[in-house]
Amino acid sequence: RVCVLSGEGCSLVLKPARVVVKFGEPVSVTCEAARRPRVLGWESTVGAAHTQQDLSVQWKADSLIDWIEEPICYGVFSTAPRQCEEKLNLVLYKTPDSVSIRLVNHTGSMKEGKEYQLLCEVQNIAPVQYLVLRWYRDQTEVYHSAFTELTQSSPVQVSSILLITPTRADNGAQYRCVAELDLGPEGPQLAPTVSSGSLNASVHYPPDFLSPEPEMLDLVVGEEVTLNCSATGYPTPIYSWLSAHTLQETLTDEAIITSSSLLPGTYTCTASNRLDSKSKRFLLKARSKGRRDSRTIKSIFISFFMFIFVYIMFVFCLGV
């Protein structure tokens, strides 16, 4: 049957004109004719119905499970156009059985600066053209993909790939993907969504000193001096120290050494993990306890002359 818009027109109205139904749920739609029909009915594999003379007829299903269902309301009239039809815009949807996420061709920890693929797989979702796959890093959406070019109405399996090049800031970040059905205003008020579990990013990166430049420190006999070799890195760096002098055994694997028994000279600290090793030098210069450096002497002189200046001004004011 073909609806020919001539004469008085077909005047068939579907209420609602578009209906969104969850798989297995009931549905009903009314077809109304604006002029008296000879026959008014629904052509459908489920819930077919017809009436004579009545101006409306209802199509309904107690549990809609037919993915190829395309209900059509038809009317036969005494005047032209004698036959016409209206096809119901029916969307039967199903949320996925599962949504999963994994690394492609890789297991275990990732390395900083290397590119990886994250794969999100969605099992048995329909209709796929309404699906939006959203990728999240923690709570921030970083990418999404749609499947509007696909037209299959029955459940399918689809996937999406996210390319990442992790940095040390990504260590501990959680990635997940969310399958969302955007079914339009006739669909549920809240779009049906199913989320994958979280993939925890474990990112390995080499040691990096908080302050990598060599340090020169004054060494005063009997006073403590601190050598700070702290470094970031994952796995956590281990430390070793080298010097012309023998260090106490308990200090050889510490990031920070605080001691009053160190001798003048160069101390080299090395921070290592399975990716790399980096070193930092400390130069300890002996200074006697009573010796003052040039900056201290300069400060004393400035303070002395300021005192003399204030005193002279005070005396001058008293004389006036």
UniProtKB/TrEMBL annotation:
Pfam families: Ig_3. One of its GO terms (biological process) is cell adhesion. The chain crosses the membrane at residues 300-319. It comes from the Eukaryota. Gene3D superfamilies: Immunoglobulins. Residues 96-195, 207-298 form the Ig-like domain. One of its GO terms (molecular function) is integrin binding. SMART domains: IG (SM00409). Keywords: Membrane, Transmembrane, Transmembrane helix. InterPro entries: ICAM_VCAM, Ig-like_dom, Ig-like_dom_sf, Ig-like_fold, Ig_sub. This is Si:ch211-66e2.5.
